[in-house]
Amino acid sequence: MAQRAETFFPCDGLSGQLDQIAATELREEDKLRDQSLAAMREWIRQNGRLHRCRTDDRFLLRFLRVKKFSVPMACEMLERYLTMRQTYPRWFARLDPEDADLGAVLDACCLVPIGRDPASGRIVIFGVVRNFDAQRYNSDTMIRLNMLVAEALLDEEANQIAGFTHIFDNGGMTMAHVTCWTLDNLAGYLRSVINCVPVRLKENHFVSVPTFAAQISKYCLSFASEKLRARIHCHSTVEELRAQVSPELLPLEYGGNGATLKVLNERFREFLRSKRTALLELDEMEIDLKDPREAAVHEDVGEVVADGAVGSFRKLSID
């Protein structure tokens, strides 16, 4: 395997483990990776709907890895992703870490990477739900925060390969945190973002979920596949969480050996400043949603018809 670049949380000692995950879980090997990248670039070149699209290795590997190097499926997901970006600009346009609202929720430590799990190689994202000011912000801001964090980290190969673990502390959340979600946003997020953003989400931990949130959680899970539901773990207390998550990872406030959330957030904010240009340049990509030559798009962006992506790929002559 090729040497991997540095990441936000270093992968010291994990190179062999990442190679093993790539080979066994993603079917990745050097020749297939090179052929798949070439095929995907040619598909992009031939696709009349894509007016501007990144074609660098890091970007295309997001989709190839999450689809285990099935080029037709990776192309389909790329179309879904670009379609979603233009359908929901309120979630995706100008993911600027210097934006006042995004900066405020970042500094409240509503969502911050806390480390890399040495056992799995996964990056761990920690969210404190009560810190999100649901009286001031709505679910659009919450989704934008999630997209900002994901986009900032998705070019890193370790994150593409090993995936993500999310931990949410729901203690102290209020009804406002539930009611700030409109049904349109909830359905759009669950049925579109989860299907269109190339993230390998391997574990979700929810801690201290209040009783009143049970029904909304049940509704959310109704959209999830059985595989995704199996990756969701609920813990009644922080003590239960500590039994499942390495103390080396958990922030100091949660009885772990890590730094405080404030220190972790300051490091992440510095990292985001270094990624600002790349994040804003994502807005330069464009797909023509009215062009009939490729995939048709239903009203629900989560139901992008695959014929355009797969059909165009099948026309290629790939050795």
UniProtKB/TrEMBL annotation:
GO MF assignments: phosphatidylinositol bisphosphate binding
A Pfam family hit: CRAL_TRIO
Coiled coil: none
Classification via Gene3D superfamilies: Alpha-tocopherol transfer, CRAL-TRIO lipid binding domain, N-terminal domain of phosphatidylinositol transfer protein sec14p
Gene Ontology cellular component annotations, sorted alphabetically: membrane
CDD domains referenced in this protein's UniProt entry, alphabetically: SEC14
SUPFAM superfamilies in alphabetical order: CRAL/TRIO domain, CRAL/TRIO N-terminal domain
Domain CRAL-TRIO: 114-262
PANTHER family (alphabetical): ALPHA-TOCOPHEROL TRANSFER PROTEIN-RELATED, LD40136P
Protein name: CRAL-TRIO domain-containing protein
UniProt organism field: Anopheles quadriannulatus (Mosquito)
